[in-house]
Amino acid sequence: MTIGGEVTSALLYLDDVSVTFDGFRALNRLSLSIGANEMRAIIGPNGAGKTTMMDVITGKTRPNTGTALFQARHDLTRLDEASISQLGIGRKFQTPTVFDMHTVEDNILLALKTDRRPFPVLFSKRTREEKERIDALLERVRLTASRHRSAGELSHGQKQWLEIGMLLAQEPKLLLVDEPAAGMTDQETADTADLLREIAKTASVVVVEHDMVFVRDLGVKVTCLHEGSVLAEGSLDAVSANERVIEVYLGR
Ligand SMILES: Nc1ncnc2c1ncn2[C@@H]1O[C@H](COP(=O)(O)OP(=O)(O)OP(=O)(O)O)[C@@H](O)[C@H]1O
């Protein structure tokens, strides 16, 4: 493997990655790189390989062939999921997984601690530093006013933000977000785009999304996947005008 400029400057570098399930190629020689503090939107029809790509990055799925490097030196194809998470790669699945019975701020506190057993964490004294970090994270995800409510009472959009706040507590260098706008109101969708843009000032963000209004709002480079490879990449306007993209995805 040659270590060229693109490899060394990229935070995430995928090259020639293939994943086969029972003879079916879910990823087909996929190449993609994400820079530091870059936000990228990934679009594409159902079955294009978007989830499988995220699974390769997080170590859930091993590629049959190809290169997956983080910070030009960590070979993601050889690390397990826990090690990859510790490198600073966080993943937000489509359905929020927060602790409904606990308050919003306790959810953030649980995410801050490495000891995740709720009893010792919630009943131990909070340090000043922890309080400040909780305040800052709640502010960031727009939940300061809801801090004492139980997470189960939040709207769907607020639960998504809480989970993003819990991921931010781990200070990720790369955040993978799967369809954050699904099921959100128009206002929540617009607020989520703002939030992700803010996050991208200090971390890289990969957003898989079908909602084109939201993708336009993000205002970032777009990659369209199809049949496990990159079909088109560039500005949303350029990608949307691509005839193949219209044929396989947008024009449906
Ligand atoms: N564990 C698996 N075993 C067999 N086939 C799989 C497996 N995981 C994914 N696939 C297949 O691989 C292809 C790519 O799936 P993937 O979930 O990555 O697509 P996607 O772009 O995320 O689609 P969607 O937008 O519907 O979530 C699909 O045809 C899917 O059926």
From TrEMBL:
InterPro entries: ABC_AA/LPS_Transport, ABC_transporter-like_ATP-bd, ABC_transptr_urea_ATP-bd_UrtD, BCA_ABC_TP_C, P-loop_NTPase. It holds the Pfam family ABC_tran. Gene3D superfamilies: P-loop containing nucleotide triphosphate hydrolases. One of its GO terms (cellular component) is plasma membrane. It comes from the Bacteria. The keyword Isomerase does not apply. The keyword Thylakoid does not apply. Keywords: ATP-binding, Nucleotide-binding, Transport. One of its GO terms (molecular function) is ATP hydrolysis activity. Residues 12-252 form the ABC transporter domain. PROSITE patterns: ABC_TRANSPORTER_2. This is Urea ABC transporter ATP-binding protein UrtD. It comes from Hansschlegelia quercus. The lineage of its organism: Bacteria, Pseudomonadati, Pseudomonadota, Alphaproteobacteria, Hyphomicrobiales.
